[in-house]
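@channel sequence for tomorrow's demo:
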Amino acid sequence: MAAVPELPREERFAAVFAELSDTLVRDFDVVDFLHTLTERCVDLLDVAAAGVLLGMPHGQVVDAAASDDRTRALELSGLEWDEGPCRDCYYTQVPVCDVRLDTEAAGRRWPRFTPRARQLGYTSVVAAPLHWQGQVIGALNLFRDRRGALDGSQLRLAQALANIATLAVLQQRAVYEQTNPFTQTQDTLNTRVVVEQAKGCLAQHHGTGMDEALATMRVHALRHRLSLAGVARQILDGGPAGLAPQYPEH
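structure tokens (generated this afternoon):
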């Protein structure tokens, strides 16, 4: 989806929350929704990137969405290293508030994650839990690329967006009449795997980047009223030749 236009602050908030809430009352693809939500975090908050991780039944954490592909790669590396703000937020069940990445403390806390994040230009991170009735089912990670901390109103908005992410996961659970919030997480992971495979296939076919491939899939899904997972399966079953590249708007 395109970025939110430059409207006055209140109108941007209204547009984003109208968009997200309208999606929640319809049938929707949860991976696509979470990807949109991470983009809207960048639109509304003073952050450079965002990502969402979700918990699994046996305590593992998996990536669900990110605002761009390099941030997703960073999140995946953090999971491999078993460190990072989203991981800490999920396991401690408390927010990670504006940790500066240029400090010795951050380097000791996340010895591999911190230098990789700094290489990408990120200066600090925030993580907000996705919680529901005493359980934390995931975390929303926010990356800044400038000095200074998010103020209290931005932190509250970040938590509100994390709550919307929680509702999206639980809404899909309710649609399938599942009783365990982590069961839908497994379904989300399965969808994510299919989408990533299709992204790679499409990017290779058209010679584009992964972000451009995802944009093409999302535009096609919107135009033809399909789910993102449905488009991904079409690509894997029949090939990507029919999908022309669509480049993200900035």
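heads up for whoever presents: The mean pLDDT is 83.
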